Amino acid sequence: MGKNKKIKRIAINTGGGDAPGLNAVIRATVISALNRGWEVYGIREGYNGLMKPEDYPEGGIFPLTRASVRGITHLGGTILGTTNKGDPRKYPTRGRDGKWFEKDRTSELVAAFRRHRLDALVALGGDGSLSIANVLAGKGLRVIGVPKTIDNDLKKTVATFGFDTAVSFATDCLDRLHSTAEAHRRIMVVEVMGRYAGWIALNSGISGTADAILIPEIPYDINKVAGAMKYLESKGKYFGIVVVAEGARPKGGKVCVISRELGRQEKLGGIGEQVRLELQALTGRECRTVVLGHLLRGGSPTTFDRLLSLRFGAAAVRALAEGRSGVMVALDPPKVRYVPLEQATKRLKTVPPDCDSILTARSLGISFGD
Ligand code: F6P
Fold first, then answer.
1. DSSP letters spanning 185-254
2. Reported confidence tier of residue 2, pLDDT bands at 50, 70, 90
3. Ligand 1 mean position to 321 CA, how many Å?
4. If you placed Cys at 191, which of 99, 101, 256, 291 could pair as Cys (CB 3.0 to 4.6 Å)?
5. Are residues 288 and 305 in the same domain?
6. Atom 2, ligand 1: which residue's CA is nearest?
C-alpha cells in the first residue's frame, strides 16, 4: 500500500446517511478506474463488508464492473449500502462480561484491506466517514475522500453533493404548504434535517419564502417568532410558514435529541413539534407540524448534484493516479481541488450569522427569532 506502488486494485465504499448522488460518484469512479486498467471492488455498508463479512453471504466485497454501474447515475440511495453504526474507531463490541463497549478496530480494518490486496480506497462520506478515512490514511492506506452530505456542513468544499437535491425538494414542499396554510389560515412549522448546521433550513426557507427560519447558529426566542406571526396578521396575512432546522434551539435551551446509541452520532428531532406547541399557545392560532425528515435524502439527484458527483468521482481517480492520499476532493469553482482530510474534517461548516444569505433573508423581512 506504499505511496508509490502502482495501483492495480481499488475499493470504494459509502458511509453515513445516504445522499442523492452517491451512485453517480460510484459510476464515475468505477468507469474512470476501469479505463486506467484498475480493478474496482465495492465494500458493503460502510466498512461492514470487511469487518463482518459473515453477515454478507453474497460477499462483503464484490467486483464492480461497467455492467454493475450502468444506468445508476440518476438513482438515489447507494448500490453499496451504507451505515452510520459501523465506525471502526469505536466499534460496538461485547465484552466478556456481556456488556457492550466501543473498541478501536482500525488496525484490523487496514489489515483486511491488505488481505484483499486492495491498493487504495475511495471513501464517500460526511464528516464522520471522512474522519475515519483520515485515520486509515494515517495508518498507511491510500485514501481519497469524497464529500457527501445533504447537510452541506463540510469545510473546504463550496458544496457537498446531495445538498442541492435536498434543498430543492424542501423548497418544493414549502411551495405546496403555502396553499393549504393560506386556505386554513394556519401556521405551518416545517422541520428539516441538517444536524448542527442550518444550511438546508436557510436556503429552502429563503427560496420557499418562509416567514421565519430557525437555525442552530442563531438561537431563537419563541416570543420573537410569535411576534413576527402577529405582525404578519396585523398586515392582513393570516397564515405563516416557519422552517425549523432539526438542530435549532431556543436561547439558553438545548438541542432536541431523540436518542444516543453506542457507535453512532446522536439522533436529532422533535424541535418542530416543540415550536408548534409554543407558537400555538402564544399566538392563539392553529399551528401544524410537518417533518420532512428522510424524504430529504431520497429521489433523483438534481443536475447540479449529478454533475458534481460525476466530477468528484473522476477527480478521486485522477488523485490516486497522481499518487495522492489522505485528501478530499473539493469544489472550488471552477475547479475541483484536493484538500487534506485533516483540514476538511477538523470543524463543521456552519452558517456564518453575517453571511449574505442571512442578510438577504433579513432584508426580506424573514424572522430568525433573534
Ligand atoms: O447527515 C445526514 C442526516 O440526514 C442528518 O441531516 C440527520 O440528522 C441524520 O443524517 C439522520 O440520520 P439517521 O438516518 O441515522 O437517523
1. T-EEEEEE--TT--HHHHHHHHHTT-SEEE-TTS-B-HHHHHHHHHHHHHTT---EEEEEETT--BTT--
2. low
3. 33
4. 291
5. no
6. 17
